[in-house]
Design a protein that fits this description.
- With 937 residues, the chain is of the alpha/beta class.
- 41% of the residues lie in helices and 12% in strands.
- The protein contains 43 helices and 24 strands.
- The strands form 6 sheets. The chain has a 6-stranded antiparallel sheet with strand order 15-12-14-13-16-17. Strands 5-6-10-8-9 form a 5-stranded antiparallel sheet, with helices on both faces.
- The radius of gyration is 29 Å and the shape is globular.
């Protein structure tokens, strides 16, 4: 508590001095206590500078108060060089602009917080690009790339970040602003330092391209251009804070072709590098079979690969596709691969590259489900030595009984691997392994790091790689910029021990009380530590169909990322925060429980489940917020209102009464109450002969009548029943009113959810045991039956069988080869997939049906913003609207006059109706009636 009060007092003083956002709250400090590394260091405060003057004032304040300063972009550092105990400067929020682009000179001037993909998007119309392209390019910042000397797959052709830098404007540790270029005079004493250290610089540094460990002092040599700017690249925030950078750009190739080469194993692939690189490829990436197996398990499938257990992904370029293809054929002839596949289709190429891109997160688990950690994830050796190094590395890991998934930039000799170190139980063993691995890589003439930097993960190991004279030169270089050692202390110079501040060391298991967490062996600590911090939740992936993370896309605040929420929950399981702590409530408040992270996060973080578990632990046996009783138990109240629909609708139509009732219920009064149908599906005459659970014929199908379909949109159920009956089936519905319990789950009322799910299993078990299928109409309920049911009733073997029998309407229809949807080639359809369906079952069946109908489709990516009870809760209306502005509302505003808005989710239709006055239609009705009406009104 004293630390908290001290941090708040200092933050108040800095805020008064600068006027810029400064946050020393417990929650914010926890969010920035880790990056994508193994380490945890809670800062004193986080500052969001608006410009250079804020940065200068912050550094002066830090010097006056004995605080360190650490620069941070997207926080994707795998080495632990974006965390520190003093002030963390987050450049990504407000210093993220492209200052200028000179197309003729092929240069760009950028601020440090600019995301690489935003720069590439700005350059694309000019046929230009920034060369380095790490796998985190959709969220990593230029400042972070300069700090680490980032590379990526195309560094083989377009160089490292240090190769692109022309001029840097920085603020050093004394508060001086300096402009670094190809002139050593910019830093007093730098020329003299270079002369005094010529022997070391020429013999120990710059021996091969991927020698990223230590400082890049070889660039100070006269024969290398005497570039202070290039020497600054890779200094990991220890010498200065970047204010602005001028970087060189490269022409985009006119055409590229991907060739995948198959080998017996990854080491054999490495042996063939000389033959492969002789064909002048622009990228050569390697992937081990273990990684492909994990991607396949996570995604369900992977694109076709050539025969083998190790692969090289080789990209060739040319002035035309024919030229790039000819180069690919020469490559296949020159290589010694067992098999190959040449790919020219852009979609197929992107799908193959996605295996590599997702590897960083998926590699956080070994094939048998053990957590795997970075630490030795970035070693590099001269490419000629790589095959031998990999074989000896396999022997070393076997000796320590650790394993992991290999991938990396094999053309450059750089290998990434995360290993299942027993950090929790045996951190000293982790330390011993790192020193042995360092000895191995040095024997092969290699580097501890090839592009991620040394950070807290490897700086102590520099003593294995470099002589005392070289390490003294590193210290001397830093002292010219930061004599007081306030910039990122403990990194590179006077390093912290590699086993200090480990995030999971000594953590005890925390058995789950709500969900089974079967993939995490029932351990909530293991589950929340799935988040390794790679930060994909900060990326806008809507262009590739991603849904994560809607709240962050709306606010651009780290607080609203899946990663930040995981960090807060990690503090809870380690005992630093209670389940009822304000930081926990603040962190989880804007989580929509959309479940998108469960599928979009490569590490498989499922924040909706963790939030439900957190609410369950906080409120079990205690008084809950009113909306939990109202919205969380909504099916119960709707069952009563359904008996008097006219009265309920009349009362809801009276504005004053509605607003008063909503305020009392914890609902935002700006929301309208959806109108109840005059007659529910269960009460309609057509359903009377459908109730029942026993199977009398193999041609019976159970139609799952969820509360929302039954109460608000019974015509959807009637349409689905007709479609199913046209295939020769008899449609049945459960005789008892049963519920999937979703509203109880989303509000953390898991005992109530289990009670409803037990009743559901009782109602469906006989039908399923006889071989029957269950067709669901509401995507959120269907997803709950598939994913949450087995997790909440793990001891009931019937639960898994019921879950496996559930189908969406589209899936069921496509299981009948003779069924064909009606053709509507003149229709334009705007379709909003439901978040839960995206996460749990996918939307492929619906895509296939719409394609067969011949309609023009605009498929939206991202949450609608209502997300069940979330958008109805008091305090969430504005963020709900902001999320809807990510995709839904712009699409409806720009829709053609006669477009159809297709949405199976009741929440999605409600959001569109209330915010855009647009009526949505369920797939069942669209297939049956094929309405063609305006999507916006």
């Amino acid at each position: 508590m004293d630390d908290d009060r001290s941090s708040e007092k200092l933050a108040d003083a800095l805020r008064t001095r600068t006027g810029c956002p400064v946050d020393a709250s417990v929650r914010r400090r926890v969010e920035y206590s880790a990056d994508a590394s193994n380490y945890r260091v809670r800062p004193a405060m986080v500052v969001f500078p608006r410009g250079e003057d804020d940065v200068a004032a912050t550094v002066n304040f830090a010097r006056e108060n004995g605080l360190s300063v650490t620069a941070r972009g997207a926080g994707t550092s795998v080495a632990g060089n974006a965390i520190g105990p003093g002030i963390v400067l987050d450049f990504s929020r407000q210093m993220n602009a492209v200052r200028a682009v000179d197309v003729e000179a092929r240069t760009a001037t950028v601020q440090p917080g600019l995301v690489l993909s935003d720069l590439q998007r700005r350059l694309r119309p000019h046929g230009l690009r920034f060369g380095p392209d790490p796998s985190t390019q959709d969220r990593c910042t230029l400042g972070g790339m300069i700090g680490n000397n980032a590379c990526g797959p195309h560094a083989l052709a377009w160089g490292r970040t240090s190769d692109t830098v022309r001029e840097l404007r920085i603020l050093d540790g004394t508060g001086e602003r300096r402009t670094l270029g190809s002139d050593l005079a910019a830093v007093p004493g730098l020329a003299k330092f270079t002369t005094a250290n010529l022997a070391v610089l020429r013999t120990e540094l710059g021996r091969f391209d991927r020698q990223a460990s230590g400082y890049g002092l070889e660039h100070l040599l006269p024969e290398r251009g005497s570039s202070a700017a290039k020497a600054f690249v890779g200094s990991e925030g220890t010498c200065g804070l970047l204010l602005e950078a001028e970087v060189a750009l490269t022409l985009m190739p006119a055409a590229t072709v991907l060739t995948v080469l198959g080998y017996p194993d990854i080491a054999s692939a490495a042996d063939d590098i000389a033959a492969v690189t002789s064909c002048a490829p622009v990228a050569v990436e390697g992937i081990d079979a273990g990684l492909v197996d994990v991607v396949r398990a996570h995604r369900g499938t992977v694109p076709e690969l050539p025969r083998g257990r190790g692969w090289l992904f080789v990209e060739t370029a040319g002035a035309s596709v024919a030229e790039a293809l000819a180069a690919a054929r020469r490559l296949c002839a020159a290589s010694h691969a067992d098999d190959h596949r040449i790919v020219t289709d852009p979609m197929a190429t992107a799908a193959l590259w996605r295996i590599r891109a997702d590897g960083a997160g998926l590699a956080g688990r070994t094939p048998d489900g053990k957590p795997a950690w970075p630490g030795w994830e970035d070693a590099a050796v001269p490419p000629a030595n790589l095959g031998a190094y990999l074989r000896e590395f396999a022997t070393l890991t076997a000796g320590y009984d650790v394993g992991g998934l290999l991938y990396g930039h094999i053309g450059d000799g750089c290998i990434h691997v995360r290993l299942d170190f027993p950090i929790t139980d045996a951190p000293r063993r982790f330390r011993t392994f790192l020193f042995d691995a360092a000895e191995l890589v040095v024997r092969h003439g290699g580097s501890l790091s090839g592009e991620h930097g040394d950070g807290r993960a490897r700086s102590e190991l520099l003593e294995v790689m470099y002589s005392p004279a070289a390490r003294a030169a590193f210290a001397g270089f830093k002292s010219l910029f930061d004599p007081g050692d306030i910039l990122n202390p403990g990194v590179l110079v006077a390093p912290s021990p590699v086993d200090a501040d480990l995030r999971v060391a000594g953590l005890a298991p925390v058995p789950s009380r709500g969900f089974a967490l079967s993939t995490d062996l029932g351990d909530l600590s293991t589950a929340v530590h799935r988040c390794v911090g790679i930060g994909k939740c900060r990326a806008d992936t809507r262009g590739s169909g991603g849904f994560m993370c809607p709240s962050y896309l709306a606010t651009a605040d780290e607080k609203d990322t899946t990663r930040a929420r995981a960090r807060v929950l990690q503090e809870v399981v380690r005992g630093e925060l209670g389940w009822d702590a304000p930081a926990v409530e603040e962190s989880l408040d804007l989580c929509l429980s959309c479940k998108a992270c469960a599928s979009d996060c490569p590490a498989g973080v499922d924040m909706a489940t963790y939030k439900s578990e957190a609410l369950y632990r906080r409120y079990r046996g205690r008084l809950r917020p009113m909306d939990h009783y109202v919205l969380g138990r909504l099916p119960r109240w709707l069952a009563i209102a359904q008996r008097f629909p006219r009265l309920a609708n009349a009362l809801a139509a009276r504005p004053r009464l509605r607003r008063a009732g909503m305020r009392l219920a914890g609902i935002d009064p700006r929301r309208a109450a959806p109108r109840l149908a005059p007659t529910s599906f269960r009460r309609s005459s057509g359903s009377n002969d459908r109730t029942g659970t026993s199977m009398t014929s193999a041609t019976e199908v159970m139609l799952w009548i969820d509360t929302f379909t039954d109460t608000f949109d019974p015509e959807n159920a009637a349409a689905a029943a007709q479609l199913i009956e046209r295939l020769g089936y008899r449609v049945r519905i459960p005789s008892d009113r049963v519920c999937c319990g979703l509203t109880w789950i989303s509000t953390g009322q898991l005992d109530g959810a289990r009670a409803r799910l037990r009743a559901t299993v009782d109602a469906l078990a006989a039908h399923v045991a006889a071989g029957g299928l269950i067709v669901g109409l509401e995507p959120s309920c269907t997803a709950t039956l598939r994913a949450d049911l087995p997790e909440l009733l793990p001891a009931d073997p019937r639960a898994k069988r019921v879950a496996a029998s559930v189908r969406t309407l589209a899936e069921f229809l496509l299981e009948h080869p003779g069924w064909q949807p009606p053709r509507r080639p003149h229709d334009t359809v705007i379709v909003q997939p439901h978040c839960h369906q995206h996460a749990v079952g996918g939307f492929e069946a619906e895509r296939r049906i719409l394609a067969a109908m011949g309609v023009t489709v605009e498929e939206l990516a991202g949450c609608c913003g209502l997300a069940g009870n979330f958008g109805m809760q008091r305090g969430h209306y504005d963020i709900s609207v902001a999320v809807a502005e990510n995709a839904l509302l712009p699409a409806l505003r720009n829709a053609p006059p006669n477009a159809v808005f297709l949405a199976d989710g009741f929440s999605c239709r409600t959001q569109a109706d209330q915010l855009a006055h647009t009526a949505g239609v369920h797939l069942a009705r669209y297939l049956l009636d094929c309405p063609s009406g305006p999507a916006a009104g």
